[in-house]
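Please complete every field before forwarding. Incomplete forms are returned to the sender.

SECTION A: IDENTIFIERS
Entry label: holo-345
Bound molecule: zinc ion
Molecule representation: SMILES string

SECTION B: INPUTS
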Amino acid sequence: MLLENFCPRSKLVTKTTLVDKPRFPVIDAHNHLANPFGGGWDAPRKPLSELLDLLDEAGVTHYVDLDGGWGEEILYRHLDIFKAKAPERFQIFGGVDWSKWESMGDAFPEWATGRLNVQKEAGAQGLKIWKGFGLHVKDQNGQLVKVDDARLSPLWDAAGELGLPVLVHVADPVAFFDPIDETNERWEEIGQHPDWAFSSPPFPPFMEIMNGFKNLVTRHSLTTFIGAHVGCYAENLEWVGQMLDACPNYYVDISARFGELGRQPYKARKFFIQYQDRILYGSDMGPDLDVYRLNYRLLETDDEYFNYNAGDIPQQGRWHVNGLFLPNEVLKKIYNENARKVLRI
Ligand SMILES: [Zn+2]
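SECTION C: PREDICTED COMPLEX
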């Protein structure tokens, strides 16, 4: 038998709680409706009513769609397909078209800032920064743009002035930056997605990106930032907590990191309680009922040692998770109250 076929079944006799509905209404503050990587919604073939029914069944009252794209064309499409038909259910975030930097040169930051104004006027309710920032985005000289590059200051300040929260995903799981060998805890995942390997060099080291991100959020204290995926560093909640302590304008979403949170349940539970005013729920896996229910199970129950994915084999590393049984007052804030404040819903 090959090691990759080894699929042990736990013989633990433990309880399984099915959480059909979340204990409080949920705002999904990080998700997608047309992302080729993380689920989505096949708008041309599936009616919107089907999506709304699914969200109702999942107890999701508001859904943040981060797929407004880079230019305005995709943003307009999402505003038209989703927002216009159910304005109270969807918030669509815009983006920055970094590819223009090469041809526009020094004029790029001002141009990008201008596009933000246009997107806001069209109906965008936030700005999504994708992980290419810090890993792939280059300036007119072909130089990698650092996350805390001062040339972009007008863009971040404008987001603050326009009241648009900036949801940032920089770096990726720490193991994606490590050598891909037998010690790498995400070896199987990187094998399936070779483009997710960011070994340094040529990529900047993980901590260089993270420290740049901290500089950025610190310098623009009047702009609200949301660090995606537990502040892009779910493996080190201590570090994320220190950044939350240092930056009152900073929030984190917990999307796509339930495997990380649930494998350090004591630390994670303390983190949720300590930073209960700064954490937003997000799924990131498209509108998927099974995923929502698994997320609710992790946050609400004290179930032990279960797969954080719906499938047989955990997708982000072969470990299992334990429920965090968060108190009601904490759950309520994470499910909706914090998002209401940050997203101005
Ligand atoms: Zn996402």
